[in-house]
Amino acid sequence: MSFEPLASDFYGFESLVSDREKDALMRVRSYMETTVRPVINDYWERAEFPHELITSFLETDVARYGFEEVRPFENSAVFRGLVAMEMARVDASMATFIGVQEGLAMGSISVCGSAEQRSEWLPKMASGEVIGAFGLTEPLSGSDSARGLRTTATRDGESWTLNGSKRWIGNATFSDITVIWAKDTEDGQVKGFIVRTDSPGYTATKIERKIALRPVQNADITLENVVVPESMRLANANSFRDTAKVLRLTRAAVAWSSVGVSVGAYEAAVAYAKEREQFGKPIAEHQLIQDLLAKCLGNITASMAMCVRVSQMLDEGTQRDEHSALAKGFCTSKMRETVGWAREAMGGNGIVLDYEAARFFADAEALYSYEGTREMNSLIVGRAITGKAAFV
Questions:
Q1: The Acyl-CoA oxidase/dehydrogenase middle domain covers which part of the protein (predicted)?
Q2: 93 pLDDT exceeds 80?
Q3: Which one of 58, 237, 261, 346 has the largest count of C-beta atoms within 10 Å of its C-beta?
Q4: Contact predicate 249/328, CB 8 Å
């Protein structure tokens, strides 16, 4: 399959990856265009997840992450970011599924698990035999998760008892395991646990009536005296600092996904502008429409440049929390502007699902908030700038 650069990649950032990575990127693009795009609007409208696509989705090698037990890190972080963008430019919900499965859930086990835990779970998750979820956010604890977790873990010999609740947990209505983060009642530190979702006392209830990422099956989780063996505690998760190591990786991926959402809305607006006629000519020939499209492309290009650099720093081993935080906060803010301008360029049709911009417009609101609000990411960056924490 020959490589065809995206017209929306105005400065040619895709040229930075290897020929092998370009081939893989084209496989992802082909899958998303031919298999996901034709059906996703219907799933979005019904708020249902396309379960039948999971196996083929994972077999297409759409993974943004590689793990030694499954697939070594043979691909660059820039490539993995471009894959996240490529998925989100067609559908942010499928990109989110992969972000939870192979970013948050597998990432937690890879970063914080023992060698035995990695060998046991990662191959099964990579194949789709086991679906994972990531339970950090709670009904009363989102931005203050570092200090405010209310879910508790109490050790009793060779097992732990978990009590509490989680909210907004993606994949949770159909996951086989969920990584639950809870506060140890003995030392007050946050620890991670691989919890089987068929465990007595574990329930997951779908959150209904969402206006964004509707195919994503977010859930409220309740944990009532859920017993977890010590062997299922993440061996290297001893404080929230370890949780943050996972978020550092996935936060940059969310920035990439937000670029994809921007690109998807922009491309829909460009196609529409070339076809829609007003005052006797396509609206693409109107100055104000060209101005909107140029502003969209400017946001996309600036955001892509930031994502490329933060991914290069990840490969170099120099990326820090503030780098991924700045990318996530900046790119999602620019995404919000971009999808608004794209919808505006389409007039009233911009709110109709058939024209696609409406889906990107709505989904942007979720990406703007999850894995750290703009304000929280600004404070992470602000701490790096000033040397002073201002979180409370």
A1: 133-226
A2: yes
A3: 261
A4: no
Residue whose entry in the numeric block shows the structure tokens 């942007």? 364
Tokens of 266: 């922009």
> What structural domains and CATH numbers belong to the chain?
13-127 (1.10.540.10), 132-232 (2.40.110.10), 240-386 (1.20.140.10)
pLDDT band at 221 (very low <50, low <70, confident <90, very high): very high
Rounded to whole angstroms, the Cα distance separating 271 from 16 reads: 27
What's the chain look like in SS3?
A: CCCCCCCCCCCCHHHHCCHHHHHHHHHHHHHHHHHHHHHHHHHHHHCCCCHHHHHHHHHCCCCCCCCCCCCCCCCCHHHHHHHHHHHHCCCHHHHHHHHHHHHHHHHHHHHHCCHHHHHHHHHHHHHCCCCEEEECCECCECCCHHHHCCCEEEEECCEEEEEEEEEEECCCCCCCEEEEEEEECCCCCEEEEEEECCCCCEEEEECCCCCCCCCCCCEEEEEEEEEEEHHHECCCCCCHHHHHHHHHHHHHHHHHHHHHHHHHHHHHHHHHHHHCEECCEEHHHCHHHHHHHHHHHHHHHHHHHHHHHHHHHHHHCCCCHHHHHHHHHHHHHHHHHHHHHHHHHCHHHHHCHHHCHHHHHHHHHHHHHCCCCHHHHHHHHHHHHHCCCCCC
Any residues with CB less than 8 A from the CB of 369 and at least 6 apart, and which?
A: none
* Cα–Cα distance, 110 to 119 (Å, whole number): 9
Q: Check residue 309 and give its pLDDT.
A: 96
Predicted pLDDT of residue 318:
92
User: pLDDT tens digits, residue range 255-287?
Assistant: 999 999 999 999 999 999 999 999 999 999 999
Spatial separation of the C-alpha atoms in residues 85 and 1, rounded to whole Å = 19
